[in-house]
Amino acid sequence: MVFEGFSDFLSYLTLGKNQLVATADFVILNPVSLFEKVSPILEQSESIQL
């Protein structure tokens, strides 16, 4: 799962509607300009949730 900032990730955890999956990876883009650096890693993923 990809989050724009750490506060978005914390909100996701706080809501509790979604349970963490042990096999999930989390990417926190803080700032969004880091997307270009992490895009090669994301391209290797089977699925990406934004």
Task: Note the topology.
Layout: E1 2-3, H1 6-15, E2 27-28, H2 35-43
Largest sheet: 2 strands, parallel
Overall helicity? 25-40%
What's the order of the H and E elements?
EHEH
Low-confidence stretches: none
Q: What class would the helix/strand composition place it in?
A: mainly alpha
Number of domains: 1
- Residue-averaged pLDDT, rounded? 79
Enumerate the strands of the largest sheet in spatial order, edge to edge or round the barrel: 1-2
Offer a quick outline of the entry:
The protein is 38% helix and 8% strand. It is mainly alpha-helical. The mean pLDDT is 79.
Could you walk me through the main structural features you see in this protein, from its secondary elements to its overall organization?
It is a single chain. By secondary structure, this protein is mainly alpha-helical. The chain has one domain (2-43). The chain has two helices and two strands. It has a two-stranded parallel ribbon with strand order 1-2. α1 (6-15) links the parallel β1 and β2. The longest helix is centred in the N-terminal third of the chain and has 10 residues, at 6-15.
Salient structural properties:
50 residues; mainly alpha; two-stranded parallel sheet; 2 strands
